[in-house]
Amino acid sequence: MGDVVYAATQFRAQPIREASRHKRTTVLLVDPDPATLAAMEQALRDEGFVTATAFDEAGAVAAAQRPGALGLLVASTDAIGMQAVGLADAVRRFHPALQVLYTVTSEDELLMEGLALSGDDDVLEKPFSGSELVEAVSSLLR
């Protein structure tokens, strides 16, 4: 079992050796906490994923406008709550086929119910390990 991403600044994810042609697609990580953002980025990069990061909607939209394939948005609902849906919509203006993984705490039950997930969206409950994040991202990109 890997170390917890949400509560740690450093960890080593359990290796998941799964070849994926989608690893060349950029995963955009948005989280207001620098330690969490760095841990998520490290877990995905250790498994060969290309990542971009942002702390807020403005940074995410700026990253979405850069050249390259953006296939997945991992958006924390910690600080932005239901605005995460608006964030996904804003990024989808530049990448219509974007898939979204919302990271939520168990206390966000009402938020989870209100997300109205499409077939391209999913939820990962915090705390989660690096290997759980990699598995969720891999699953969505399959």
Question: How would you explain this protein's 3D organization?
Answer:
By secondary structure, the protein is α/β, with parallel strands linked by helices. The protein has one domain (22-128): Response regulator (Rossmann fold, 3-Layer(aba) Sandwich). It is built from five helices and five strands; from the N terminus they run βαβαβαβαβα. The protein has a five-stranded parallel sheet with strand order 2-1-3-4-5, with helices on both faces. Helix 2 runs parallel beside helix 3 (83-92).
In short:
With 142 residues, the chain is an alpha/beta fold. The protein contains 5 helices and 5 strands, in the order E-H-E-H-E-H-E-H-E-H. It has a 5-stranded parallel beta sheet with strand order 2-1-3-4-5, sandwiched between helices.
Q: Assign the CATH superfamily.
A: Response regulator
CATH architecture: 3-Layer(aba) Sandwich
- Please write the CATH class name: Alpha Beta
Q: Which radius of gyration do the C-alpha atoms yield?
A: 14 Å
Structural class: alpha/beta
Largest sheet: 5 strands, parallel
The N- and C-terminal alpha carbons lie at a distance of: 23 Å
**Helix content range of the residues, please?**
25-40%
Low-confidence stretches: 1-21
Strand and helix map with partners:
Blueprint: E1 26-30, H1 34-46, E2 50-54, H2 57-64, E3 70-76, H3 83-92, E4 99-105, H4 109-114, E5 121-126, H5 130-141
Parallel strand pairs: 1-2, 1-3, 3-4, 4-5
Helix pairs in contact: 1-5, 2-3
